[in-house]
Sequence to fold (110 residues):
Amino acid sequence: MANERSDSQLQSGGSIGANNGKIAEHKVADRLHNVVDQASDKASELAARASDKASELAGRAGDKASELAARAKDSAGLQVRKVSDLIVARPIGAVCLAFGLGFVLAKLRR
Fold:
């Protein structure tokens, strides 16, 4: 009987130890799951911030490009007006200049 009692005590003690091990394993798994969830949430938050900042910077760049394009268009229009005024003021000189440039370019192509 003494042997039977010690065998059953060992078996119940062994199962308690196994249960405690499983409980500890579940606690560790739960903590790990929580840490992974927190890391995932933080990564999503950082990605959203980066996306917002990139959109803001792209918007600024687009605005700046539009402004520069408008300036270039205005400048080109001004230069065309200046050349037109010069042609009107000196038509013979403009024709001679055009002829001379055409002649030089034709020679360079050969």
